[in-house]
From TrEMBL:
Keywords: Hydrolase, Signal. It comes from the Bacteria. This is Calcineurin-like phosphoesterase domain-containing protein. One of its GO terms (molecular function) is hydrolase activity. PANTHER family: TARTRATE-RESISTANT ACID PHOSPHATASE TYPE 5 (PTHR10161:SF14).
């Protein structure tokens, strides 16, 4: 494992002597246009391996609440989407968007309508290499092979947390859920000799805000959560929000919520017999690499936003500013995971590790 060394671009071989069969560039929560978002996407597009690279946006593609419904809102939303995919498509890279909770109207009542509008816009570009997966309003999973040894499974995790389905109980607990989990289990079971990447917006584990973990700054300077440089000390009042969020105002978007915990339990059960599964998500606004025995979680959720990340024994890497992740699929079914950040106006590889196939 290495930290903060100068950037080098390896086109056909990893630094560990294995040939790269396919490269995945992973951005989460990139749905707000700002200078750093633009810089990161521009630089990430330079990592293309011709014919061997795919780009995945891991949800929350449009802040604050998904695709606009009015003409003016839709025009702004369209610009946000273009800011993410244009640089990659200009160098010939296929781009896939999956949904996050903000794309579902920030889990609001217009969620399905806004999700379909986003999918319609992407599909309306009539570009076969520009995709919205799974189909809007369908949980998935969508299963594809990106190399002979790597399978990718994508699903819409917000579908299982969304509180405004027409028939909520049926949508979350009925035949759709059984079929979904059976498809996950079958998809994993059919790939015993492969490494499986499971991509969704919501992580299985995290040390960020949605794990309902708060820093000392949140308690002492609570207004910095809304206004970054507003350091007005409110030591007692500042503790009210963290306490209420973890008790009274529980959100399905937090890992401790029963609905979210049920999703984690069910997905874990569906893949429990496969050793080579890596979860890849956004949602929490930072970069994380979590390793706990055979469990691995990559969080690449700082395409346009940042938030605090706590420390933990299983958290092997964290960075609470903007960045992205690259996964290189190697010819021995192992993965080379790298995190890239902007530091001193330069793009740097801040961490890398090899996930060996067992």
């Amino acid at each position: 494992m290495r930290f903060l060394f100068p950037l080098y671009i390896c086109f056909w071989f990893s630094g560990f002597g294995q040939q790269i069969e396919h490269r995945l560039i992973l951005f989460g929560d990139a749905g707000e246009m700002n200078k750093q978002q633009d810089n990161l996407i521009t630089e990430a597009s330079k990592f293309a391996l011709p014919g061997k690279t795919s780009v995945f946006f891991l949800g929350d593609n449009i802040y604050p609440s998904g695709m606009g419904i009015t003409d003016d809102e839709a025009q702004e939303s369209s610009a946000i989407l273009r800011s993410q995919y244009t640089a990659f498509r200009q160098v010939g890279l296929p781009v896939t968007f999956i949904a996050g909770n903000h794309d579902w109207d920030k889990s609001g009542p217009n969620g399905l309508e806004k999700l379909k509008l986003q999918a319609d816009f992407i599909n309306g570009q009539h570009d076969a290499a520009l995709r919205f997966i799974p189909e809007a309003g369908i949980p998935g999973p969508y299963i594809e092979s990106v190399s002979d040894k790597i399978t990718v499974i994508l699903y819409d995790s917000e579908y299982w947390l969304f509180p405004y389905h027409d028939n909520l109980d049926s949508a979350l607990n009925g035949k759709v859920r059984v079929q979904f989990l059976d498809s996950i289990a079958t998809g994993v079971g059919d790939t015993e000799d492969k490494t499986v990447l499971i991509l969704s917006h919501h992580p299985m584990r995290s040390f960020g805000e949605h794990a309902v973990r708060f820093s000392w700054k949140d308690h002492i300077f609570p207004l910095t959560r809304k206004w970054k440089n507003f350091y007005l000390p409110l030591p007692v009042l500042g503790s009210v929000y963290p306490v209420l969020r973890s008790t009274v105002f529980k959100s399905p978007e937090d890992l401790s919520h029963p609905t979210y915990k049920n999703l984690i339990r069910d997905i874990s059960t569906a893949v429990e017999n496969h050793k080579n599964v890596i979860f890849v998500s956004g949602h929490d606004h930072g970069l994380q690499y979590i390793v706990d025995k055979n469990f691995r979680q990559i969080v690449s959720g700082s395409g346009s936003k940042t938030s605090f990340i706590h420390s933990g024994k299983t958290l092997k890497y964290k960075y609470n500013k903007q960045g992205f992740c690259i996964l290189d699929c190697l010819d021995n079914a192992s993965l080379n995971v790298s995190f890239y950040i902007f530091k001193d106006d330069k793009i740097l590889k801040s961490f890398e590790d090899v996930i060996k196939h067992e």
